[in-house]
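I have been asked to look over a protein record a colleague put together. Thanks in advance; the entry in question is below.
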Amino acid sequence: MSAPLDPIALAQGLIRCPSVTPAEGGALDLLQRTLEAMGFVCTRLPFHEDGTPDVDNLYARWGTSGRNFCFAGHTDVVPEGDSAAWSHNPFSGTIADGQLHGRGAADMKGAIAAFAAAVSRFLQRRGADVEGSLSFLITGDEEGPSVNGTVKMLQWLEAQGERLDACLVGEPTNPHDLGDMIKIGRRGSLSGFITLHGIQGHAAYPHLADNPVHRLLKVLSRLVEPLDDGTEHFQPSSLQVTSVDVGNPATNVIPATARATFNIRFNDLHSLDSIEAWARTILREEAADRFELVVQRSGDAFLTPPGELSDLMSDAVKKVTGRTPELSTSGGTSDARFIKNYCPVAEFGLIGQTMHKVDERVPVTSITQLSTIYETILDGYFPQ
């Protein structure tokens, strides 16, 4: 019997693959070789759509029957920025002072390595008696437009008659220490791009002009008013104005147009449709028909109610770390927003303090512990 997979060595190998979205960078190739050596059947799923980059993805499955437990994640990473600002080459996978350094160490190549190592040990111990299946759903499009990745992979699985019964996403969920937090849902997200039209004129003769900036200020003051007080599992909805732009270099000219951008993170009291309708109502009341609103939809709020999956994960986290994790819906969006349409899904990964930053890094011991947690979850999901 071969030795169990070393999660640290695999994490280093993955980091050394420069898989900045949408480049595959060799990361999926490495993961595929690793999983095939364990007996997984791997299928590469490249997808394309006009106006977006082509993206390669990987679905791997061990077993052909029973409940299918899926590990989901992404091998693509954000750009490294100024490489000279890093303490170590961002694609070197250097270990220094007990920390694994590199782009993707936290988000989320470390977790993918922990997935694979956990499965390696689990199958060596239990492979002959497991009544079920294990799978990996790994995209190269999570940090990009999220068009040619998880969404289309899930559609492909459904068309093939593949079913996922539970899914664990390895996003970095812990604010400070491993075991702090499990994500059982996410807030919805929508961005809005407002343009208000007026009539240009001299600032000394406002009666001959129509100042759209004044109306924009009224619109924005109403949009930022609190929408709700939160719900049992969600924070209050929050709208943030991220840009106000008039583009007017003159101090004595009333501009013809004024623009603003906002992003709202909303809880399960609302939907993408209801948020857009609410914003349009305010615009109509303050600007009549002299406005344009373009919306960019990221996803609705969703929740996997506390139950079998979160209990299983919480018990495993407590057993390994001694901590009882908070069940949270905080933070940004993730591909779990797509998976929730197919099966129960929850997220647990590494510590997120350095993700997307210069000198992204995680403690080596955290990756080892995380792998043990994942293995413990598998033992609970497939009881002997």
Observations:
- The chain has a mean pLDDT of 97.
- The radius of gyration is 24 Å.
- The longest helix spans residues 105-126.
